[in-house]
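Dear all,

This email documents one entry for the complex benchmark we are building for the journal club exercise. For each entry we list the sequence lines for every component of the assembly. Then comes the predicted three-dimensional structure of the complex as a token string, followed by one or two observations. Please use this as the template for your own entries, and keep the labels exactly as they appear.
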Amino acid sequence: MDTQPEELAAEIKRLQRCINDLVSILALPVVWSGAEPSHILHTLLDVLLDMLQLDLVYVRLNDPNGQAPIEMVRFAAPQKQPAPSPHEVGDALQQWLGADSRQGPLLVQNPLGDRDISIVPLGLGLQSEIGIIVAGSERADFPWQTERLILSVAANQTSIALQEARLWSEQQRVTSELDRRVAQRTTELAAANDDLRKEIAERKRTEEELRSSEERHRVIVEAANDAVVSMDDHGVIQFANPATARIFGHDPTELMGKPMTLLMPESVRRLHESGFRRYLATGHRHINWQGVELTALRRNGQEFPVEISFGEQTRDGHKVFTGFIRDISERKQAEDRLRVSERDLQMTQAELARVSRLTTMGELAASIAHEVNQPLTAVVNNGNACLRLLASGNLEPEVLQRALEGIVADGTRASSVLARIRAFIKKEPAAKTELDLNEVIQEVLVLAGPELDENQVLLDQQLTTDLPFVLADRVQLQQVLLNLVMNGIEAMVAVTNRPRFLGVQSRIDESGDLLVALSDSGTGFDSELDRVFTPFFTTKANGMGMGLSISRSLIESHGGRLWAAPNSPHGAVFSFILPAAGGSPS
Amino acid sequence: MTGAPIVFVVDDDPSVRSSLTFLLSTVGLQAESFDSANSFLQRKPPDAPSCLVLDVRLPGLSGLDFQRELAARKIRIPIVFLTGHGDIPMSVRAIKAGAVEFLTKPFRDQDLLDAVRVALERDRARHEEEKDVMSLQRRFDSLTSREREVISMVVSGMLNKQIADQLGTAESTVKVQRSRAIEKMHAESVVDLVRMVEKLKGLSEKSR
């Protein structure tokens, strides 16, 4: 081989550079220690591209877990824009990747430009199992021997570094997993400890609450305004609080061991005993256990109304019943007073309605009088004037005609005033609805209840069920009924030598109308039978004498009739009928 | 006071007004009608006996208020009230305040005509009376002050001698003054003079 000295010098220079490059390549593992695989590959590609003046360098790293491989590529100066992706480059080179580059240079179509390119594929790992590197150059004599040497050393170093990196990261993963598990377990243990502490505190608190709540209950029961009495399943009193003394008059300590029935009047005792037996046998409660109203018995024999709530407990296999007993005498009295005042209010309202109706009628009458009197006055004047002229023989036809024209005009005017008033009266609204007559009767009897009690009047009700509805104004019907009931009561106030009976009857009469009859055993009327319905007629000391008159007109405005008859042997019967409305309450 | 009597009708209803005028005309009475109290007040008082036929229910001023208003203005015209629905307290009030009659519509024609005649007669008499008092006053005014002094003493029942003593003059002088005063007053006697003085006193008391 004839070698020129210049060529020799160049050869030496090239070898020197190759040695320098090899030293650099061998130093790479120091840089790579502890680095991620992607970092290793980035450094490798940059170093090779620069060191070997390559036009292209590509690397593919297979993933050990069978996932998508990592691909990277570097170009000296990409001629195609945009630059192809690593994956596109990998696809273009695919068919030569398995080829053995030691057979000679591989000349392939440059994926980046027009000209061909020489490539060197180098496997990473013994069977290229880690991946592959491809170095490419447009230089036709690529690769020189030195370049091939550098590339294969670099591939080996990279393989080792990647394997180390994998091991390192696996180790890291295992370590961190271990740390995580330790931390998790520690947390779990801490939480369990916390729960235990809480549970202990909770138990302490509950015990304390139980203690204080027992104390509180004891204080409440001692201080309660209501009597609290417990009995066992034999009906024997086990406990009574201090309020029992105030309400019943019994010393609580004396009550212990006595039967519960001691606190009940005879009538309630039987009810209690049978109901209690049945409950113990069947578990069936014969009364409401919450807020039932009963009659109780004081030590001095006085009966009084109470409201009782019961509770039941099982202690040592035995049932204990506790009753909370409230004295409601005052409330009952207040309720009675309220009922009386409600009735009074109703009566007052009814009276007010009557008076206002009368006033309205008076005003209407005055208005009618004026409106009609004006034309009538003119008619009478004109007529009288004509008569006078006629009598004196001075009535001239023109005068008579003018007068007659005036008379006709004023007569017409008077009748049109009346027509207007009639139209006005028709506009009065009627509040008539379908009513159950018996229901209205019951409402009125409730209202009159205190009055009946006070005057010791016995009520005899004979109400026929399933009566048809009546079409009526509820308030007006109530007014009529209340008026008749109160009249009946008042007529019996003076009666002392016989029972005071108020009979209330509802039925259908022979003609299919609904009939209501109120009979009393009072003083009755002597000869005033026809006059009782006359306005301002009264037999009472403080009566207005309008009640029956108005009641009659109210019933008549409902298409009915109201009349009176003597009762036998004493008293009076007031009856009214109302037409049936068709429907029936049932 | 020379003219024929006039009846003033005040009612807001034209039919009532014209029929009243017609009715009054049949007995030869002249009537003038007004639809409100105010339009009547615009008219000059007539120089003839007159009366008012007044509806109680009037727009604006009511009949009874109008009666009070007339009294306040010293217009002493007799009033016959008409009403559609008079109640007793209302009519008592009206009559107490000087009304001649209180008629409820529709009324008998004779009742109205009688009431109107009474009212006109009352008005005529009042005018006569006023005329008398006025001439009496004129005569009284023509007396000298000493004559008036003497007359007032005569009327109070003093004797001539007593009057002379009190005035410090001769009894004969008193006699002369007394007879001259009786002559000037056109009195027929001392009794007549007393009556005249009483009338004048009553007038001055009334106007107080």
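Observations: The longest strand of chain B covers residues 50-55. Chain B has two domains: 6-127, 142-206.
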